[in-house]
Amino acid sequence: MSPSKNVLLIVVDQWRGEMLPKLGASYLKLPNIDRLSAEGVTFANHFTQCVPCGPARASLLTSQYMMNHRAVQNTIPLDGRFTNLAHELRRGGYDPALVGYTTTTPDPRTTAPNDPRFFVLGDIMEGFHSVGAFENRDAYFGWVESQGFKLPPVREDLWLPQGGAGAGATARASAIPKELSDTAWFTERGMSYLQGRGGKPWFLHLGYYRPHPPFIAPAPYNTMYRPEDMPKPVRASSAAEEGKQNGLLDYYVNNNKQASFFQDGKGLASAMSDAEVAQMRASYCGLMSEIDDQLGRVFDYLKRTGQWDDTLIIFTCDHGEQAGDHHLLGKIGYFDESYRIPMIVRDPRAAANATRGTIVERFTETIDTMPTILEWLGLDIPRQCDGRSLLPFCEDSPPADWRTEVHYEFDFRDLYYSQPESSLGVPMDKCSLAVVQDEHFKYVHFAALPPLFFDLKKDPGQFVNRAGDPAYAARMGEYAAKMLTWRLGFAERTLTGYRATPKGLEVRAA
User: Are 189 and 175 in contact (CB under 8 A)?
Assistant: First the structure.
């Protein structure tokens, strides 16, 4: 088919799912994202399939559960035989542009071992046309210097507070002004691409690094929010008490340093006071507002040029952020804070008019993103995809057989920056957990550690493990069976829809 529509896929980094004004976060000042919610559908229970960035983005852009794509951690390769959103868009006549990153390590069976992409955390996924790469950050830092800003000897130090050293939770502004921030740079790259299209249809993955740490915002965003207005941390009375729940949690509570935020090398969330957590969260929100202001530029441009009503806009994220909850920072483990992410779909078609401004409470997953985009463009959805299109929710016709639970996974094998595998003495290929969760219960299955089971109605903070409680034994068995059924039903199936017959090859897959 010849392309006739535009798609803007906005992917932020490390943004917690409940942190949207539409979902009750009234302390946030996000007028542009809020107007996107007013014109689209906001999905209240949207989850990524895995963390951190590399695995999460693999699921987002291949529509596969981690158990199928197996890019299980940052730096772990993505199998080259899988298609992805970019490849499918190319089949439809689009040249998919990307601002930002995908944190993808290439397949070593088809890539030379001295390829520079094996010396970094990850690179651009095959198929995308990069118009603003951030993987090695050279382009961003070069732009900053070209604007007359003198880079510090360690380039990344421009994200530290003004005046140099100073770590941890702070209201001090970053050394880099807002006009030269990475958020401004991503927007500039995206706007340059859009302005150069000359009226031709387009697809743009507009990625932002924020609100990823360091949680140090440029002025005036550094003081936009008051620490006393931030939600209180959800955590046990002490780090020692928190760690009693599970060996993996105990490891992270005692080793979860976020060096990019705490330049002094301390950086344990478990050592942060409530006041420090509150200040950190205020800075985190400031970074969100900075993104919102920049998105306003993009939205205004689309309206000014008459493209607003021809463009599908999706606002989502790779994964969440613990932000001090459960004495943790970052995206790790099995708590909701790491996996629940924002999802807003603004479908410009008249067929979506009845749902504008609504909230969907049903469970949706990041694997639903790729099928949503492909269906909207009238393109085929590959057999590989584990997700389903969200367009029926925009059309006020949700499927009767929609999922009643959500699934996500985490792999905790040793990496050069974290060694839980060695600490726990678990074999590499058994450093994994999988979660099945609905509105009532949450079951966490480990390959080599005892399971966890939470009663979410009685214990929404997930502090009391019911796995050893006889009163919950039958219920836990039900959820273990749900997980087994899920794994059997979603095992990798790219070729299972074909079969040989006396009459030749038969294609059974719809």
Answer: no
User: What is the Cα gyration radius of the chain?
Assistant: 22
**Architecture label for domain 6-507:** 3-Layer(aba) Sandwich (3.40)
Whether residue 289 contacts residue 281, with contact meaning beta carbons closer than 8 Å, is answered with no
Cα(468)–Cα(341) distance, integer angstroms: 31
Which two structure tokens, joined as six digits, stand for 421?
A: 């595998």
- pTM for this prediction: 0.97
Q: What is the pLDDT of residues 146-160, one digit of tens each?
A: 999 999 999 999 999
Which of 48, 88, 50, 38 lies closest to 379, judged by CA? 88
Residue 214: asked if its preceding bond is cis (omega within 30°), the reply is yes
Rounded Cα gap, residues 234 and 213, in angstroms: 20
User: Is residue 382 left, alpha or beta, with left meaning phi > 0 and alpha meaning psi from -120 to 50?
Assistant: beta
Domain ranges of the chain: 6-507
CA distance 298 to 48: 25
Residues of the chain with pLDDT under 50: 1-3, 259-265
pLDDT value, residue 270: 82
Residue from 50, 53, 285, 394 carrying the catalytic annotation = 53
Task: Indicate if 431 belongs to the active site.
Answer: no
Cβ neighbours of residue 199 under 8 Å, at least 6 residues apart?
none
Per-position b or e across 217-238, b if 16+ CB within 10 A of its CB: bbeebbebbebeebeebbbbee
Instruction: Please give the pLDDT value at position 260.
Output: 46
pLDDT of residue 265: 42
In angstroms, rounded to a whole number, what is the distance separating the alpha carbons of residues 218 and 283?
Answer: 9
The three-class DSSP label of residue 95 is coil
Beta strand segments in 175-222, E: 203-207
